[in-house]
Structure formats: C-alpha cells, structure tokens
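Database export, one record per block. Field names are fixed; values are copied verbatim from the stored entry.
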Amino acid sequence: MADEKAAAEDGGVQRLISWAASVVAPLSVLTTVLFYFGYASSRAQFEYFGVDVDTIGLSTQDYVMRSPQALLTPLLVLVLIGVAVAIGHDVSRRRVHAAAVASADADEAVAHQGRERLARLERSFRRLELAGWCVLAVGTLLLFGYAWLQDWTPYPLVTPLVMAMGAGLALFSARIRGLIRPEAKPRIGVVLALSLVLVTDVFWATATVAQWSGRGSAQQLALRLERLPSVIVDTRERLNSVSPTIKESALPPSAAQTFHYRYRGLHLLIQGKDRLFLVPGELSPSDFTIMLPLDGSVRLQFQFENSPP
C-alpha cells in the first residue's frame, strides 16, 4: 500500500511538473519575443536623440512594457491575415468536398461534372502554388542582392514580405491540392522548410516595423518636446555647451549652498537606473542630449503643468 501511495504521489508530481513546463515554456518564449521587439523599438527611438539604449539601463520588464506600441499594428495585420486564410481554407475545403461527393454520384452525368470541377480546382491551385514558388524565388533574389540593395529604404520590409507571401501561397495551395489528390500532398520536409521560412520572414518584417515605429515615435516626440516633464537642474559646476534655449543663472552664494548654477528649459527624456537624460525644449541640429548622474551631484525640481485644473 505504501509503495502504491508513493507511486501515485510520484505520478502526481510528474504530471504537475509536466503541466508547469507546458505553461512556463510558452510564457518564456512570449517574454523573449516581447523583450526583443521592445528593445528594437526603444533602440531606434533613443538612437534618434543620440543615446545608445544600452547606456540607459532599462530592465527586461521595461522593454516588455514598451513592446505593445511597436507590436499593435503588426499583430492586428497578422490577425486579419489569419482570419482571411482561415476563411479561404474553409471555402476551398467545402468546394473540394462538394466536388468529391459529386464525382462519386451514381449518376454518370453528375459524377462527370464533379470530376471536371475537381480537375479545374486542382489546376487552379497548381498555378497558385507555382506562383507562390516564383514569388519566393523573387524574395530569395532580393535576399542575396543585399549588397546592392541595402541602401534602398523599404528593403528590410519588402524582402521578408515577398518571401513570406511566396511561402504562404505555396503552403496553402499545396494543402488544398493534397485534399484533391492525396498523392500530391507535399512531403513533411517541404512543409517544415516553408513553415520555417514563413515564420522567420514574419519575425523579420515585424522587427522592421518595430524599428520604424520607434524611429517614428522619436520624430513625433521631437516635434512636441514641451510635452515632456519640465525639469529645473541645479549643479555644482557649470554645464558646458548647452543649447541656447536653456537658461543658465547663478545661485546666490551662501555658506550652506553647495549648488552654484541653475538651468531652466530642460525636459526629461527618460530616467535610467542611475542617470537622467535631458533634452532642450526645442531641438536644433547643434543640440544634444544631456546625461546627468543620480549621485547627489545635481539637484532636480520638476515643474507643475502650466494648465488650469
């Protein structure tokens, strides 16, 4: 009895571990994906202001929280494409099924019409599969033409989209042809290869959109820097080469005063783990981002918004 009870407990523990692994693994993959796209978007955004995102010291959670903005549009597009593919597959499967039923009818005229419909469907999807392979070949040529096309701005988006479209058409058509003629069903190796190409290209295209989203967010932010929190900075030493829009004033000397200069007109771009990144209220080509450490060498005051309640 004791052995049976122990075996039952061991089985329960193993099932619990298996269930936990099935839950944790997808969560880990999802977190990794969100982290990557959040990082790609943030890197492009802060690079616009001359800041390497690695110097900010953002955490994994920070990057994950920043990813939805970059992923919202690609996810909506993927959902719509998935719905369209599901509807197209269902309609095609129903047409194939109806033609197959008609081809097996006892009435020879009906059966003949059913066989003709199956033949037409098979030819149509064979052409569509061939078109998919041709589109995939064009995408492959774009991929290997990187050395000559790298300066073409849409290249990192057009190339994966063309390859993904070709792989998707080939997979979809081969799937339907397999329903019409089981002997035409593609081999598992071909299906896996096309699926890998499709997933990789979708990932590539989404990463490109994330980078462009970060760059676009930075450009929009640069037009409205006054919306960022306004900061008054007191320093012990004078800041060199500040923007003309930043107002410097000397603080009255006193025995207890350790800060000697005050700067107005700065706005908080982002706060890292142990440093601040500040920008002037109006950007010009000669401006740059100011990095200040949070080590007691500066004193900060955040101004209220100048709008009535």
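Remark 1: The first strand starts at residue 230 and ends at 235.
Remark 2: The helical segments are 2-47, 60-103, 108-144, 146-149, 155-180, 188-223.
End of record.
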